[in-house]
Design brief:
CATH class of the largest domain: Alpha Beta
Bound molecules: magnesium ion
CATH superfamily of the largest domain: Enolase-like C-terminal domain
Structural class: alpha/beta
Number of helices: 12
Amino acid sequence: MRTIKCYSQGFPLHTPFVIARGIRSEARVVVVEITESGLSGIGECTPYPRYGESEQTVLEQIESIIPALEQGVSREQLQTLLPAGAARNAVDSALWSLEAAKAGTSVASLLAVSLPSQLDTAQTISIDSPEQMATAATRLWEKGASLLKIKLDNYQVIERMTAIRRAVPEATLIVDANESWQPEGLEERCQRLAELNVAMLEQPLPAQQDEALALFTHPLPICADESCHTRASLHSLIGCYEMVNIKLDKTGGLTEALLLARAAREQGFTIMVGCMLCSSRAINAVLPLALSARFADLDGPTWLLKDVQPGLAFSCGRLSF
Ligand SMILES: [Mg+2]
């Protein structure tokens, strides 16, 4: 018989996190702990209002399957008990973690993935004035970050990117608009971003307006985030996007994420792996997938005033093991 614990937890941020959708000052996560025969697995998720989730709904979803979990439900069975989303991710991650504990190894080893000594991750710059964003970019670059993820809204797009590019001429820049742009003027904006040597543009349009992306030849790769949740999303992305951003809170855990990554590659998409505002627990869960991604965007814990202990070893733009 298993014992299940499920609770929410808050992590204050050291700096407000500003994206097109709003400002955050705290990461709110839900944690699941599963104990069986003296061994424990732990999983964490970040409920996301954009996808109709709150702490309350996620806790309720998890509590609804506690009797089944206590009876020993498997990871495979879990996939049909809860829909893709944060709640299933927390449980799926806890079950992976428990399987690894039983085998006396890591989830990466279970999947025959060998972790390198370090992994580069994007470091996010949240929305501010062009000058402030350029200063933030310079500071990160000087500390060693070479891949910068720039959050943008629908204003001062070219002004902000020009200021940042001038400040860090050699950095790899990726841009995330979080659905804040419109189809009008998009092609020209993409052209300007390509001229500024931006390596990738993430989710410029609201998810329902993806068709507009099929109307022009992309001068830089465009990546689906809010438009890509699971394998079921892929069909409608063909011809609109070149990349997909895989996050466990959208797929409902690593189990579906691994299948999504394989299917996406087979259909010609390049993979990136992302995270929400979260602790190192959530990053640990996605590591097996991060190693083969074109871009890993896993800096969530670096925004926390205090991470879980022991946390992963982040330095600026780098994750060491
Ligand atoms: Mg995104």
